[in-house]
Write a structure and sequence with these properties.
Blueprint (H helix, E strand, L loop, with lengths): L19 E5 L9 H14 L5 E5 L3 E5 L9 H10 L3 E4 L7 E4 L2 E9 L5 H20 L7 E2 L13 E3 L2 E10 L3 E9 L4 H16 L18 H4 L6 H16 L2 H10 L5 H14 L1
Parallel strand pairs: 1-2, 3-4
Antiparallel strand pairs: 2-6, 3-5, 6-10, 7-8, 8-9, 9-10
Helix pairs in contact: 1-8, 2-4, 3-6
Length: about 280
């Protein structure tokens, strides 16, 4: 966990005053559902009065489906083909569509209590919070981050984040009764084109010859990495994660962080395993 007490004005300081940083960039679980199960349990604790958390993590080689993807007519066959290529596969509980994960993709989860205005207004405001965090983390590179769906990108959505018309990040939400998770995947290193080609091959196989089913039409050139799009420099994945942590730290308050640390209760391994099985059976 990280602590600091500086403040800045671009992102409201109250959003991050007591936020704790859980950096798991170098902790690789075998099961790709592990970080999603951890998010679920931390979100439950946040809803019960626990602290807000910024969770950063990676997975070495996984292919994560959205719930609609899993219902494509030949999804099981397409997943077996990916597993034959040594991908671990799973269906996530948050929104969005299929994404490949590897060491060059940084996943950011903001886990926050639900408070204030109605669900519709809050829904958009929480997407905006993640957009502002990522845009500010990249500001030192001089890159201008745009939001809005990028045609042909995988995991398409209104809050695709892009630079120069090429997507590098997708954002999804998972809402519980009293707290929520805003999840972003950020393509930091390597080839966005190659990752997009992997997703396109999955959809081509999962949909088969059925012209009626709906699925994203992925164009490989629609996606790129921060390594290609910005001057972030070498080791872009760890560099980006450090920039995110720096933004959060700059808005933390020492007293609020101390209070959050006292309320923090990380899940035990048996709780995580139970949640992993529950997510696997549910989705």
């Amino acid at each position: 966990m990280e602590t600091s007490s500086n403040e800045s004005a671009a992102i409201p300081s109250d959003d991050y005053a007591g936020m704790l940083i859980l950096d798991r960039m170098n902790e690789h679980a075998d099961d790709p559902l592990h970080p999603f199960a951890l998010d679920e349990l931390l979100c439950r604790r946040t809803g019960e009065g626990g602290p807000p958390i910024c969770h950063l993590w990676r997975h070495s080689r996984a292919f994560i489906l959205g719930q609609r993807d899993s219902r494509l007519p030949h999804a099981a066959e397409a997943l077996r083909a990916l597993e034959a290529q040594h991908y671990r596969t799973a269906i996530r509980s948050s929104g969005g569509a299929a994404v490949p994960l590897d060491e060059g993709v940084v996943n950011v989860s903001l886990i926050l209590p639900i408070a204030g205005s109605g669900a519709g207004a809050r829904f958009n405001r929480d997407f905006e919070r993640m957009y502002r965090l990522i845009a500010e983390a990249l500001a030192p590179t001089g890159a201008s981050v745009d939001k809005g769906e990028i045609e042909g990108a995988y995991c398409p959505g209104d809050y695709d984040l892009s630079i120069g018309g090429r997507k590098f990040c997708g954002i999804a939400q998972r809402r519980q009764a009293k707290a929520l998770i805003i999840q972003a995947f950020v393509v930091a290193e390597g080839s966005g084109r190659e990752r997009a080609a992997i997703v396109r091959a999955f959809y081509d196989q999962a949909a088969g010859s059925d012209s009626v089913v709906s699925y994203p039409c992925v164009v490989p050139d629609s996606t790129a990495s921060l390594e290609d799009l910005t001057a972030i420099g070498p080791q872009a994945a760890t560099g980006f994660a450090e920039r995110v942590k720096a933004v959060v730290r700059s808005r933390q308050r020492a007293d609020a962080v101390a209070a959050s640390t006292a309320r923090l209760k990380l899940p035990h391994q048996d709780e995580l395993q139970t949640m992993i099985e529950a997510l696997r059976n549910r989705y």
